[in-house]
Design the sequence.
């Protein structure tokens, strides 16, 4: 991979045609694209094209004036082509517009998680095969679902095209996955590869062969059907010998020449299908096949079938005659070049191994023959298949990554190969690095989707080196649309010990609730996030609110603060103060009085609230025939009152007294009077007791 | 796969800057018409303008969002030499007649600069509510709101002279390193021998110090500069928009005698833009994609592969139409894949892949 040079010339040429025309920067370039150069020059007279990135895998593109730092009034005449349009371009690593693909994403996520569990305990190759099949089932269901979605009549034309494109892609990925499974994941005994490949070809034939066969057989005289011989060849290449024999019984030539029919039928009956190799050595199997092959050749050389050219060709295929495989009627009967490949392998080298160089040579030859015959060039997809057959697993991964807007295949396949150890055997020390790189790409692609952030995070949690950093930076970016979602996020943060991120989420929510005027919710988030500063701020706001209105806003939260009061002194004060009000309303005046005194003397009350609290004592002081505060308490209260009076700024500037100050002054003298009276009665009371 | 959306701003003049909020669900634009416009994504994923107001008495160069921990706060800088701090007033949202309209209130105006303020950026969240500005007179100013609940107090904490007109700045997002700011200059005069200066905050005594000037790497005026998000790396990655784009690695190499970080500057890549002036460099959230805007009117997306090799993976025209034929995102930077890709698309007639890959 790294040994292949990056073709700079190609890149230069393509980007020159892409940006060169009209931009003035490649003056000597031919203006190839008239339309493109027009839009480009328009953009240029407008100004500089700029951009900003969006966390949701998109960028905003806009046009700014050139003379950025000149006086804004001087250049106004230039801007005739003013455009204030913005373009937001989003990219995605997996298109999730259809339910079927979303189902694939969630199913494969479940399989992925299970697989990682197994991997932790040491990997058994059979487990890999099992999960490879499960992924394939999910892929198959996805294609079935897409097929079904295509039939929806309400679809717009472009939507239909989109789904059809997805269908085509996932069907082909299924073909590729199956092949990769056979070549890189299964552990096959010698001779079994061909059976697996036949299975592969038959499975992805999508029932097409059966349809044609049934069509041919349904006629009165099947051998006159135009596809008769074509389907015979096709079945032969697919190794479906029984069907071939059945079809041949309809041939009028065979009916007339019983001997010929018996001859070919015998050859067909005896095709050595190596299904079970247990107890046989490679040499034994080879011998078995060689005997049969020689018999075919002998009968063909004997010109047994020369009376019927089609039958002769069929025998040629059985003999493994290369020239027969390149006959146009044989190529035409194949839907895909790899149908041809597998057929050829079956009759020329049935014991081929996935690592044999021959496999690659024959595959290349088949692809070339097929393309030359059809007059087309190989599609991207053909090169994926070819690379897989060349045993270049890394190339397959790379090509699929660079050709498809889809990270699903490469991330899951590479992870599986990584566990299987196939990346190590290809002598790539960066196996795990590649696997992680692709998982991260897939996860970040999923993350953009509003409902898949959890799935994305769980994929990232299996990326040992970088995953955590990606998790941390992404988890904060999940839009906090509902509180349920936020709680889910916080639980997730706790699970992965992302404390800082969880706190940040709480702070954002606390701030937002406060902004919306929902103080109780704000305080709840604050406590959840253990944000002492903001809790103190909110506690003050609560008290301010009480001061201005005379009652508490949202009471419920204050009554259930519990341990949370430890977060901030202010909160503890608020909670105690609330207790005081409760005791007072229940008529427990002594308890209320004690709370008030302890609030004022313990130092947890801010000085600016002292006067308010003292004012609260007035009703307690005025209860007839009752002395709530002892003389010692009263002294304390008087002391505090004196302190307020001393530190008040208005005491020395009599001329600047505002109505607010006057109110305070009145309050203070009223309090002093009440306290002194209380002191008097408490002293009297004490005397009496003595 | 790319999808493109068009938004028509109601500015009366060209837009200078746009900025997404932390979640990418709000958007602010600013313009020569001296106004700022705010957009919100509605439940149908459509952008709706929710506020527009006159914010300065000159062109508004840049607009930027504070972290949502600090509320819904915007900062703008302008040709009128001021920086303004705006907060969304939610009470208005409740009582106002139209529920979709919001009201933004000027919380503070920072008037210390004597020349046009060219860039303004909030510090990364872990540093608290801080703001850095740079202006044409070559001053880097750092403000801090000591009480995050009081957005009207923004004492000027530090003023640093860069001696040359500054055009752009970027905060180092790393939590594991001391606070760091990098500034760039687009002063074309010969006097500007260095176009990039690095400042670091030292705790004792508490001040910012010019710890490094990058020389011998960038020889042209610098239009934009951006630290990549730090995902646990010990070194810092920078993208510099000048003539072409330079990727620079800053590797901390211990401290000198006065306790300041020593940096080793490495230049692992230069991203070719055919010698065009590049106006803007922006990283995605995870720092895996770098988007650039160049003088040829093209937006390019660059990506490093798992072995750190950089490659342009796609480009767009100014109207958002895609100009590269390759579908993305490819496994970028895998050279063999690219060369075979080009070879394949040269062969060309794949109806299937055109259908799938076309954007």
Sequence:
């Amino acid at each position: 991979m790294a040994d292949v040079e990056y073709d700079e010339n190609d890149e230069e040429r393509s980007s020159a045609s892409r940006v060169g025309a009209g931009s003035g920067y490649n003056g000597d370039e031919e203006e190839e694209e008239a339309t493109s150069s027009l839009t480009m020059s328009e953009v240029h007279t407008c100004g500089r094209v700029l951009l900003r990135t969006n966390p949701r895998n998109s960028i905003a593109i806009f046009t700014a004036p050139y003379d950025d730092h000149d006086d804004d009034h001087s250049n106004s005449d230039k801007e005739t082509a003013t455009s204030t349009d913005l373009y937001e371009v989003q990219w995605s690593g997996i298109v999730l517009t259809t339910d079927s693909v979303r189902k694939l994403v969630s199913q494969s996520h479940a399989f992925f998680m299970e697989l990682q569990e197994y991997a932790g305990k040491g990997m058994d190759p059979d487990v890999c095969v099992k999960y490879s099949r499960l992924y394939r089932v999910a892929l198959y269901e996805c294609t079935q679902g897409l097929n079904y979605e295509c039939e929806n009549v309400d679809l717009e034309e472009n939507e239909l095209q989109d789904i059809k494109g997805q269908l085509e892609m996932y069907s082909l990925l299924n073909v590729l996955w199956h092949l990769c499974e056979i070549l890189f994941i299964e552990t096959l005994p010698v001779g079994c590869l061909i059976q697996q490949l036949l299975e592969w070809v038959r499975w992805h034939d999508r029932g097409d062969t059966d349809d044609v066969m049934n069509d041919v057989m349904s006629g009165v005289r099947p051998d006159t059907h135009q596809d008769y011989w074509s389907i015979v060849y096709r079945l032969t290449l697919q190794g479906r010998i029984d069907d071939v024999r059945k079809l041949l019984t309809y041939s009028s030539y065979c009916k007339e020449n019983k001997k010929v029919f018996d001859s070919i039928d015998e050859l067909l009956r005896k095709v050595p299908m190596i299904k079970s190799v247990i107890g046989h050595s490679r040499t034994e199997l080879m011998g078995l096949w060689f005997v049969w092959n020689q018999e075919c050749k002998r009968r063909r050389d004997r010109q047994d079938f020369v009376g019927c050219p089609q039958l002769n060709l069929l025998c040629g295929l059985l003999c493994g005659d290369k020239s027969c495989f390149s006959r146009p009627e044989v190529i035409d009967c194949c839907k895909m070049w790899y149908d041809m490949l597998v057929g050829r392998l079956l009759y020329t080298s049935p014991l081929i191994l996935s690592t044999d160089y021959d496999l690659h040579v024959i595959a290349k030859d088949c692809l070339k023959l097929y393309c030359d015959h059809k007059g087309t060039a190989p599609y991207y997809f053909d090169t994926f298949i070819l690379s897989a057959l060349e045993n270049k697993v890394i190339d397959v991964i790379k090509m699929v990554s660079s050709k498809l807007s889809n990270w699903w295949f490469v991330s899951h396949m590479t992870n599986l190969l990584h566990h299987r150890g196939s990346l190590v055997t290809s002598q790539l020390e960066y196996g795990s690095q590649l696997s992680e790189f692709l998982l991260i790409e897939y996860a970040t692609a999923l993350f953009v989707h509003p409902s898949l952030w959890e799935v994305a995070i769980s994929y990232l949690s299996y990326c040992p080196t970088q995953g955590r950093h990606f998790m941390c930076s992404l988890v904060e970016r999940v839009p906090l649309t509902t509180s349920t979602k936020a709680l889910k996020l916080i639980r997730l943060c706790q699970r992965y010990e992302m404390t800082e991120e969880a706190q940040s989420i709480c702070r954002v929510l606390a701030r937002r609730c406060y902004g919306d005027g929902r103080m109780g919710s704000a305080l709840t988030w604050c406590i959840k996030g253990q944000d002492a500063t903001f809790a103190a701020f909110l506690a003050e706001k609560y008290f301010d609110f009480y001061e201005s209105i005379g009652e508490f806003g949202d009471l419920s939260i204050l009554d259930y603060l519990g341990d949370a009061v430890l977060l901030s002194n202010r909160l503890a004060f608020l909670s105690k103060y609330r207790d005081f009000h409760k005791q007072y309303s229940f008529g427990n005046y002594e308890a209320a009085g004690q709370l008030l005194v302890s609030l004022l003397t313990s130092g947890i009350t801010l000085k600016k609230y002292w006067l308010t609290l003292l004012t609260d004592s007035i009703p307690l002081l005025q209860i007839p025939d009752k002395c709530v505060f002892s003389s010692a308490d009263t002294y304390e209260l008087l002391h505090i009152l004196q302190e307020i009076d001393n530190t008040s700024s208005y005491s020395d500037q009599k001329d600047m007294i505002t109505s607010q100050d006057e109110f305070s002054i009145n309050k203070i003298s009223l309090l002093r009077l009440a306290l002194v009276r209380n002191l008097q009665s408490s002293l009297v009371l004490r005397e009496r007791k003595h | 796969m790319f999808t493109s959306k068009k938004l028509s701003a109601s500015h009366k003049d060209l837009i200078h800057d746009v900025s997404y909020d932390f979640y990418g669900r709000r958007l602010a634009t600013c313009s020569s018409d001296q106004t700022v416009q705010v957009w919100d994504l509605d439940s149908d994923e459509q952008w709706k303008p929710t506020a527009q107001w006159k914010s300065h008495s000159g062109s508004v160069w840049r607009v930027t969002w504070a972290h949502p921990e600090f509320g819904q706060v915007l900062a703008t800088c302008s040709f009128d030499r001021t920086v303004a701090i705006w907060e969304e007033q939610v009470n208005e949202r409740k009582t106002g007649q139209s529920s979709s309209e919001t009201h933004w209130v000027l919380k503070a105006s920072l008037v210390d600069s004597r020349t046009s303020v060219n860039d303004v950026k909030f510090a990364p969240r872990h540093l608290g509510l801080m703001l850095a500005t740079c202006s044409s007179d070559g001053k880097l100013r750092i403000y801090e709101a000591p009480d995050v609940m009081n957005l009207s107090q923004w004492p000027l904490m530090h003023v640093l002279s860069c001696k040359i007109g500054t055009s752009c700045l970027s905060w180092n997002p790393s939590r594991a390193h001391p606070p760091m700011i990098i500034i760039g200059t687009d002063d074309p005069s010969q006097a500007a021998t260095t176009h990039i200066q690095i400042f670091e905050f030292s705790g004792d005594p508490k001040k910012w110090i010019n710890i490094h000037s990058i020389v011998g790497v960038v020889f042209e005026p610098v239009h934009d500069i951006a630290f990549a998000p730090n995902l646990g790396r010990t070194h810092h990655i920078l993208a510099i928009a000048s003539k072409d784009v330079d990727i620079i690695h800053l590797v901390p190499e211990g401290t000198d005698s006065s306790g300041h970080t020593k940096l080793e500057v490495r230049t692992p890549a230069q991203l070719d833009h055919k010698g065009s002036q590049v106006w803007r460099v922006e990283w995605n959230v995870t720092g895996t994609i770098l988007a650039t805007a160049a003088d040829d009117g093209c937006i390019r997306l660059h990506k490093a592969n798992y072995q750190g090799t950089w490659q342009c993976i796609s480009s767009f025209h100014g109207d958002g139409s895609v100009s590269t034929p390759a579908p993305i995102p490819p496994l970028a930077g895998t050279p063999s894949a690219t060369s075979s890709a080009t070879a394949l698309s040269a062969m060309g007639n794949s109806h299937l892949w055109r259908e799938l890959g076309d954007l």
About this structure: The helical segments of chain B are 90-95, 335-347, 351-357.
